[in-house]
Amino acid sequence: MIMLLFIIKLVSSEIQTTKIFGTSDSEYYYMNLYVGEPPILQQLIVSTGTSQTAIPCRSNWICDQSVNDIYNLKISYSNNVVNCTTMQKKHYCSRCQEHQCKIDFQNTNQRLVEGYLVSDRILFGDQQFLNRTNVGTYSFLCASRQINHKMNKVASGILGLAPSNKGHPNIIDQISKQQNISSFFSICIGRWDGYFSIGGQKILNDQVSTNFTIKYINNFQVSLTEISQQNQFETSFLELEMIFPQIDSSLPYTYFKQDIAQWLNDHFQCYGIQCIKTRGSQNLQCYIYNSSIQTLEQFAGQFSVLTFSFNGKFFRWGPENYLVRDYVQKDVYCFPVVQLEGDYPHEVILGQAFMRNWNLGFDLENRTITFIQNNCSYQNERLDLSVAYDRPKACTFTSREVYNIIIPTVIITIALIVVIIALWYYFRRRNQLKSNKKQKLSIQIEPIEHYAEAKAFEMQGIHLNYKILKILQYEKYMISEKNPIREDIK
């Protein structure tokens, strides 16, 4: 087989390329994005199975370093909660609650994701973060719950790339509109890592490469008409009718309804020496690899090659790409075909094992997918997209951030304390007055004959009536220094 080598050349500022992290063993691939101001690292799973970009977030001041830098609405001073009324007119919201545009959706793992729309600054990849290039403000889902049971390992959210289909625009549509570039992106994932491009694709071929383009419908669904299996002894064919698999980069394997999965598993055989069959995780069909008697390339060469026919365009799925290592038994390699069970909207889902070592270009405007055979791990190294540096943490602030965030908070806190003290004093004084009214005494004029006795009542807070006060004023005058006959009174 001719080795097909090429690189994606960044020939203009339109094309933005960044590294994809992950391996076939981790079962997901993710990208580094920097969200907010100050920009905080968010690691999002690359998903062509949903159009929603969802980031777990909180709306309080708590800084918790035990989690993966959760996006905080209170810390980012460039965010904005999307107005519910405006978005509801465009049918983007599932419901309107407290002026927030609430959205609920199920990802391809059939797990419910809930949240509300916010907008903030986003930088794609480490190089853009360091250079502060191509900064844009985009809207995404502020998710209120954990999105995936595996995300507590590294990745924290979902980067939704599927067509929006008149719903809330996906992140590619927003970038295309703001930066005036084509709504095109490509994904190339290898056995380890890969790369992602937005805005266009310029191919430099070292040799002639295998490539073809097909149309898609809805959420990257393509027409599959035939599957063939070829080994050193025979070739088998399975004809299909009205099958439209969805291409989903967030799922690790390939998923088929019962009859297709059964045919594929029946034809998965090892045609070589010392083939020891076993069962792997998720009940996959597997074989044990013995590195002491053969190389991994020799081991993969003992299995058949599968070919998928997409309306006359042929996709070669070789064992060097489809064999996946079991994440529990490290010396076991498995056939990544899982039978779909339950209520799935698609009869076939083609995940990462199908996409591996093919550069897939998705043209949202023309609704096409271009397949280009590639060694994505090798090309990732040639593109030199890796950047090593100390990434910012969610609870680390610069002097500018302290001024813009901490100082206003201190001023607001002091103002609230002053208001609370004033209210406390007001209500305390009012309660005292009410208590004094209850203690009023009905005092007759006759017992009050001397100023000193009346003064004692006054000291106790007992308010005397008008006539008593007149008597007191007279007696006070009589004993004062202004009275010329004061001595006689004494």
What secondary-structure arrangement, pairings included, does this model have?
Elements lengths: L5 E3 L7 E8 L4 E8 L4 E8 L6 E5 L12 E2 L7 E2 L2 H5 L6 E3 L2 E7 L5 E13 H7 L4 E8 L13 E4 L10 H9 L4 E6 L2 E7 L4 E3 L5 E5 L8 E7 L4 E9 L2 E2 L6 E3 L1 H9 L10 E3 L5 E4 L7 H5 L4 E6 L2 E5 L1 H4 L1 E2 L6 E3 L2 E3 L8 E3 L1 H4 L2 E6 L4 E6 L2 H8 L15 H40 L12 H9 L6 H13 L7 H4 L1
Parallel strand pairs: 4-12, 5-6, 5-11, 19-28, 20-27
Antiparallel strand pairs: 1-15, 2-3, 2-14, 3-4, 3-10, 7-10, 8-9, 9-10, 10-11, 13-14, 13-29, 16-30, 17-18, 17-23, 20-28, 21-22, 22-26, 23-24, 25-26, 29-30
Structure, described:
The protein is of the alpha+beta class and 490 residues long. The chain contains twelve helices and 30 strands. The chain has a 16-stranded mixed β-sheet that branches. Strands 18-17-23-24 form a four-stranded antiparallel β-sheet. Strands 19-28-20-27 form a four-stranded mixed β-sheet. A hairpin with a 4-residue loop joins strand 17 (224-230) and strand 18 (235-243).
